[in-house]
Specification:
The structure is a homotrimer. Helix content of chain A is about 65%, strand content about 0%. Chain A is an all-alpha fold. The first copy, chain A, has a single domain, classed as Ammonium transporter AmtB like domains (Ammonium transporter fold). In chain A, helix 3 runs antiparallel to helix 4 and helix 7 runs antiparallel to helix 13. Chains in contact: A-B, A-C, B-C. Chains A and B meet through helix 2, strand 1, helix 3, helix 4 and helix 8 of A and helix 3, helix 8, helix 9, helix 12 and helix 14 of B.
C-alpha cells in the first residue's frame, strides 16, 4: 500500500479527484469535451455498453444452459423414493454444498468489497464497482467455464458451477486490486471479460490435462489473478509523476476495511473446502483454520519487528493476516497435519509482511510496477508458496498414509483402465475412475508444471490485455 | 429517495431535529409540555407500553405454545433408533433448515437494519428501532401465524414457524421503510402489531384457501408489506411543508448502508429457498442467483442511462440491485430456467431504477404520497411483477415438464381424493395429499387472485391503520 | 460504560492518549526512555515475544496433535462404503457441525471485535488486538483443552475441538472487556495464556468430575470469563484519578458497535446449540431465539423506564439486548419451553440494564472496581442467572418429561454399570454409557457446585494473574 512506501509517491497512475464511478483516467478526455455534459455522455455510453453485455449474457444463457439433473423437476429421480432409484433426500447436493457456498459468496461480495474501502477517496466507489464487476463476472464465468464441460451441447447449471463462478470472480477481483485507480471502469470491465475466458481455459488445462489438484484454488485463482493483474498494471505504467495522496486510508475507512478482512479470515476455511468432499473437506477446514491462526499471529509479530513507529501497521493487519489462507490452499485437503498447516501459516505471514515492507517498494523502483492493493504480497507470493507446498505434499503422498483414498485425492495416481490393480481398488471404492498410474514424484512434477503454466499464462495474458 | 427528487423537499412529514428514538412527530406535543421533563415522561410511558406488550406475549406464549415433535424430548421418536420408528438423525428438520434460517435472520437484523442507515440523522436510531420492532414482531408473529394451524389447541413451535415469523417481520420492516420519520415510535409499534395479524390472515387465506404458491413470499411478504406501508403513509400525509434535509445521506452512512445491501444480496437465495425442499429448493437458489446477478448489472446500466451527473447513484446501487430477488420470488422454485431468471432480473432492475427516477416523484406529485425509503420501487412493483411471473409460470406448468413433482409444486393440481389418478401418482410419490385437480390455467388464475387479494387487503388495512 | 456514570470519571486506570496498539500504560516507562526510539524498541520486543509464542505453539502442535479419525485419510473408514464399516457420508461430523461452527467463528472475530469499537480512541486497536489475541488463544486452547483428553498420547484435532477452542477464546475476550485500557498488550497476552489454561482445567473439572452440563457455556465461559477479568481489573486498580474521556463513544463508532451487536444477537442460537446434537440442539436453537427476542424488547423497555433523557441508551441496546443469550445458555437444551425462555429473557434484560444503571456505579464506589465494557452486566450476572436456571431445570427434570433421553441430557443420571436398569434403557438407546444414577435434586446440587467452583476459580485466578 503505497502511502507507506515513500517511493510510491512518485509512482505511475493519475488517480486524483476523479471518481472511479464516473471514470478514473477519463479526465484527460473530459478536458477536451470541456464540461459536465461530456462526462454525462460518457457515463451514458458506459451504461449502454453494460446493458448490451447483459443482453448478450441473456442470449447465451438462453441458448446454452440447462438445470443440472438434481435441480431439474423433469428428471424423475427428483420425484422418486431412493428405493425406486430416486435421489437420496438425506444427501442432496444443494444441502451439502450450500452453507460453504454462502460463505464464499459473502467473501466475494462483502469481504473483498469492504477490504478495498481502505482507499480514502474510493471507499464507496470500490464497493460499488466490485459489486458490478462481480455480478457480471459470475454470469460470464458460468458460461465460460461451462463451455469446457458441455453435456449434450448444454451447460449444466448447479451449485458446483455457481461455486466455480464465484472462484473465477475472485481471480478477477484480485486483478482489480492491482490496477484499481489506473483505468476507466469500462477498461476494467473489458479486462474482466478477457480474464474470465483465460481463467477458464487455464483452469481446465491444469485440472483436466495436467491433472494437477488445487482444492483452494491457490494456483488457478490466486496466482492467476495476482500476476494477471500485475501484468496489466505493468503494461499500463506511465512516466508521469502522479499524486498518490488519495490512497491514504483514514480512521473510519480502516474500520470498514476490517469488516472485509474479518469476514475473509473467518470464512476462508469454507473457500478452501467448498469444492472437495468427505474427509478431504474436513482436512481442508482444519488445515486452513490452523494456517490462518498462525499466520495472523505471525503477521502481527513480524509487523512489529519491521516497524518504524509504535502503531499497528494497518496494511499488515488487513492483508497479511490472510496470507495463510492462500498459502495453504493447494495442499489444504492433503495430509498436511495441523503442525504443517501452522508452519505454512508462519511462512505466509512472514512472507507477506516482508513483501509489503521491502519487496513491493523494490518492484516499484526496478520495474515501475505499481500494485494498488498490494496483491503481490497477499495473493501472488503466498499463491506461489501454496503451489510449492502442494507439490511437496504430492511428492510425499503414499498409499500407506492415504489408504485407498489416495486415488480420490490425486485421480491421476489411480491405476490405469483394465488393470487388476484398478479391480482391486474398486473392491473398496466401487466407482473409481481409471487414472494414469502416476508415481508420487510424477504427480509433484505435474503440480509444478501447473503452477508454472498458470504463472506464464497470467503474465502473458495480462500484458496483452493491458495493451 | 427524496433528496434526489426535488419535488419531495415540499413533502409531507416533519422529521427534522427530533430523534426517532424519543419520538419523531412528538415535537408538537412537547412544545406544549415545554421541557425535557415532558419528553422523559413520554419516553417512560413508551417503555411501560413496551413492557406490558412483552408481558402479554409471555402470557400468550405460556398458554398457547408447545415444542413441535422434533424438538420435544418427551416424544420418544427423538430417543429411538430409526429402525424402531425414531427420527432419522441424518435428515433432521433443524439440520436441514438451520443454515438458510440463519441467512434469513442476518437479512432481517443486519441487512435491513444497515440498509436504513442511509438516513443521515436516523442512522443509529433506524438500526436500533428496527431491532426493537423485529424482536417484538418475531414473538407476535409466531403466535399470530400459529393461531391458524393449532395442533390440539396448541401452536407447534419449531424452525418452520421461526422462519415464518422472520418472513412476517420482513413485511413489517418493509412497511416501516415507507413511513419512517413520519410517526412516533409507539405508533410504529402499534402499526406492527396490526400488520402482523393482517399478514397472518392474508397469508393463510392465500396459501390454504386460494392455494396460491409463493416460495419467496413476494406476494405475501413484499407486495403486502409495501402497499400496507404506502397506504399508512398516504393516510398520514399532511398539508404542511416540511424540511427533508435529514434524509440526505452522507459518505459514511452510505458505506454502512452498503453493508446492508450486500448482506441482503448475498443471502437472498436463502430467503427464496428457505421454506421449500428438495429440487424445488435447489431451483430457488439457482434462479435467485441468476436473477440477482442480472438485476445488479442492469441496475448499474439503467442508472447510468437515466443519470444527470457523473457519479454512481447510491440509491439505485443500494436498492435496485436487490429488486431481482423480489421479482423472482414467487416463481423461484418453478421451472423458470436460468435464462428466465436472467430475464426477470433485467426487468426488475429496469423497473426499480425507473421507479426511483420517475414514478416515485410522480406519485408524490399526484397523490402527495411520501415513501421514505422508496419501498414501492424495491418491494411494491417488483413484488407485483413476481406475482405476474408466478402466474405465467403456473399457466405454463405441465406434467411433461415437472413429472410427478408437479403435484408437489402446485398441491391444488393434484388429483382429487378417491380417484384412480391419485392412486397412480402415489405409486411414485407415496404420501401425496389429494388436491383439487386444477388445470394449469386455473392455477394461474388463483395465483392472480391471491396477488389481487393481497394488494387490496394491504391497501385497505394500511389506510385503516393510518387513521 | 463509565462515561455515563459520573462516578467513573474518578476511576482507576490511565488510558488517555496512548494507543492500545503500542501500549496502554507504557507511557510511564516511555517517559524514562524519553523518545520514540524507546517505544519502537518496546514494540520490537513485543513482536519478538509474540514470535516466540508462535514458535512454541508450532512445536507443541507438532509433538502433541493428530487428525481425529473422521479427518484422517489413513483411517480406512473414510474410504470404505458404510456397508463395509465406513463412515456414513450422509452424517459426517464436519457437515453436521460446520454451519454452526462458522456462526460462532463470526461471533468471536466479527461480533466481539466490532462491539468493542464503541471506545472512541480504541476502535481500530480494539478490533486489531481482539484479532491477535483470538488467533493466539485458539491455537493454545486446542492444546490446553486437549491435554485432558489425550488419545494414545495425542490430541485429536477436529471440529469439536475447534469449537471448544472458540468457546475458550470467548472467555478470554470477555475478560479483555473488563481490563482493556488498563494494561500493556503484552500483559493482556500473558493474561490470555494463563486464563486459557485455567479455563480448560475448570471446564474439565466441571464437565467430567462434577458432571454438570452447560450447553451454551454460560458457566464455564461467561461466568468464568467475566469474573476472571473483573478480578484482574480489581487487582490492577490504582489510586490515581485518570481521565476517562476516551471511553466516550461517538456516532460512527456506535454504528460500528451495532454491527457487532447484531451479529452476536443473530448467531447466538448457534453458540448455545453448536456442541449438542439431535433434539437437544433443536431446543437450544428455539429457546435461545425466544430468550433473545424477549430480552431485546425488555432491554428497550427497562432502558426507557430508567432513562434520564429522551434518547436511546446505546450501551443498553448494544449490550443488554444480548443478555438473554447468556442467561438461557446452561438450560438452553433442556425442556424449558418457549414461555420459560421468554421469562428468562425478560429477567436477563432487566438485570442487565439495572446492572449498567445502578450496580456498576455502586461496585465502583464500594470496591473501586472498574469494568471497561461492563462485562459484569452482560456476562457476569446473566451467567450466574443461567447457572441458577440450569440448576432449577435439572431439579425439575423427570423421566416422564424427557423419556429415555433424560440420560443423554444428564449423563450422570444414567443407571450405574452392570445394573438391570442400564440394560433396560439400552434396549432403546443401545450405546448409553453407565452413569451415577443421580436423582434430579442431586444433579441440581452438582450444577450449583459447578457454578460456585467456576466463580471461585475465576476470582482467585484473576486476582493472582493481576498481581
Amino acid at each position: 500500500m503505497p502511502e507507506r512506501c515513500g517511493c510510491c509517491t512518485t509512482a505511475a497512475a493519475t488517480v486524483a479527484h476523479v471518481g472511479l464511478g464516473a471514470a478514473a483516467v477519463r479526465r484527460r478526455k473530459v478536458s477536451r469535451l470541456g464540461d459536465a455534459r461530456g462526462r454525462q455522455l460518457q457515463r451514458m455510453r458506459d451504461g449502454l455498453v453494460v446493458a448490451l453485455l447483459q443482453a448478450t449474457l441473456l442470449t447465451l444463457t438462453l441458448l446454452a444452459t440447462q438445470y443440472e439433473p438434481h435441480a431439474d423437476a423433469s428428471d424423475s429421480r427428483n420425484s422418486y423414493l431412493p428405493v425406486m432409484g430416486g435421489f437420496d433426500q438425506r444427501n442432496l447436493r444443494i444441502t451439502k454444498h450450500y452453507p460453504m457456498f454462502q460463505d464464499v459468496h459473502v467473501m466475494v461480495f462483502v469481504g473483498v468489497g469492504f477490504l478495498m474501502t481502505f482507499l480514502k477517496k474510493y471507499g464507496y466507489s470500490a464497493v460499488g464497482f466490485n459489486f458490478l464487476v462481480s455480478a457480471l463476472s459470475l454470469q460470464w464465468a458460468i458460461l465460460a467455464r461451462g463451455f469446457f464441460e458441455m453435456d449434450n451441447g448444454r451447460i449444466n447449471v448447479g451449485i458446483t458451477s455457481m461455486l466455480g463462478a464465484d472462484f473465477a470472480t475472485v481471480a478477477v477481483i484480485i486483478s482489480l486490486g492491482a490496477v484499481i485507480g489506473k483505468t476507466t471502469p469500462l477498461q476494467l470491465i473489458v479486462m474482466s471479460l478477457i480474464e474470465i475466458a483465460l481463467f477458464a481455459t487455464n483452469e481446465w488445462f491444469g485440472m483436466n490435462v495436467l491433472k494437477a489438484v488445487d482444492a483452494g484454488g491457490s494456483m488457478y485463482v490466486h496466482v492467476f489473478g495476482a500476476y494477471f493483474g500485475l501484468a496489466v498494471s505493468l503494461a499500463l505504467r506511465r512516466k508521469d509523476n502522479p499524486d498518490f495522496s488519495n490512497e491514504a486510508a483514514e480512521y473510519h475507512s480502516d474500520l470498514f476495511a476490517m469488516i472485509g478482512t474479518l469476514f475473509l479470515w473467518v470464512f476462508w476455511p469454507s473457500f478452501n473446502a467448498a469444492l472437495v468432499t468427505g474427509d478431504n473437506q474436513y482436512r481442508a477446514v482444519i488445515n486452513t483454520y490452523f494456517s490462518l491462526s498462525a499466520c495472523c499471529v505471525t503477521a502481527f509479530a513480524v509487523s512489529s519487528l519491521v516497524a518504524n513507529d509504535n502503531k499497528f501497521n494497518m496494511v499488515h493487519i488487513q492483508n497479511s493476516t490472510l496470507a495463510g489462507g492462500v498459502a495453504v490452499g493447494t495442499a489444504a485437503d492433503m495430509m498436511l497435519y495441523p503442525y504443517g498447516a501452522v508452519a505454512v501459516g508462519i511462512a505466509a505471514g512472514t512472507l507477506s509482511v516482508i513483501g509489503y515492507t521491502y519487496i513491493q517498494p523494490a518492484l516499484h523502483r526496478v520495474l515501475k510496477l505499481h500494485d494498488t492493493c498490494g496483491v503481490h504480497n497477499l495473493h501472488g507470493m503466498p499463491g506461489v508458496l501454496a503451489g510449492l507446498v502442494g507439490a511437496l505434499m504430492a511428492a510425499l503422498a503414499s498409499e500407506k498414509e492415504y489408504g485407498e483414498s489416495l486415488f480420490l485425492q490425486f485421480p491421476a495416481r489411480a491405476p490405469m483402465n483394465n488393470t487388476s490393480a484398478l479391480t482391486d481398488v474398486n473392491e473398496v471404492l466401487k466407482f473409481l475412475e481409471p487414472g494414469d498410474n502416476r508415481s508420487a514424484l510424477r504427480q509433484a512434477g505435474f503440480q509444478l508444471v501447473a503452477l508454472l503454466v498458470t504463472f506464464v499464462v497470467a503474465v502473458i495474458g495480462g500484458l496483452l490485455t493491458g495493451n
